[in-house]
Amino acid sequence: MYLYSMARNNKQIRSTTSFHDIRTIGILYAADSVEDIKHVKNTTTKLTALGKDIYLLGYYNKKTLPNGVLPHTKDDFFCRKDLKWHNLPKEERINRFANEEFDYLLNVYNPELHPLLGVAALSKAKCRIGTFNKKYINCFDFMIKEKNINNNSALLDTLILYLYKLKND
Q1: What CATH code is carried by the domain that includes residue 7?
Q2: Facing residues of 40 across strands?
Q3: β-bridge pairing 104-108 and 128-131
């Protein structure tokens, strides 16, 4: 219920942009899998080469961040110690990311992962794209329901493909 009210109270003006005109993309992702982290980083490198400014926020579903994980301005992380009692992130921990007015926010995680849904609900991105889940329609502006997506790497590739296909005339 609290997540619903967070999303409903976010009165940001939403819009879409053609891939050519995209300047900034935020990527929210589950950072528990080494393979998923590598795929997100490789995709970031490719998008940066195309002139896109990419910001990442990964969630480790552990009490603390692993050794060697150093948050950076464009590549930040949070973990369970950064959550409030209702399993949503402390706003002071994720506000910098949530307040960025990205052209697109790509949500690359299981649609039941409340800490990341909380960030999506608060996001000031112009368009928030995620996996279809009827319970969380207020957290996203565009939802994808694909049967062939069985991991986060495939989900990220699908979201990027949809960005390529979006056109504004």
Answers
A1: 3.40.50.720
A2: none
A3: parallel
| Total tally of structural domains belonging to the chain | 1
Per-residue pLDDT at 6 exceeds 60 = no
**pTM, full prediction:** 0.89
Interior angle at CA 151, CA 146 and CA 153, nearest 5:
100
Average pLDDT of the residues in 111-130:
88
Helix (H) or strand (E) holding 28: strand 24-30
> Which candidate, 85, 65, 56, 70, places its Cα nearest to that of 152?
56
Q: Domain of 109? A: 2-165
Q: Are 59 and 137 in contact (CB under 8 A)?
A: no
Instruction: Say if CB 29 and CB 108 are below 8 A apart.
Output: yes
- 169 or 162, which is more confident? 162
Q: For residue 48, which of 27, 68, 33, 32 has the smallest C-alpha distance?
A: 27
- Kindly give the residue spans of alpha helices, DSSP state H, lying in the chain: 2-9, 34-49, 91-98, 114-122, 152-165
C-alpha separations of 142 from 15, 24, 27, 68, 91 in Å: 11, 17, 15, 35, 24
Contact 118, 3 (CB under 8 A): yes
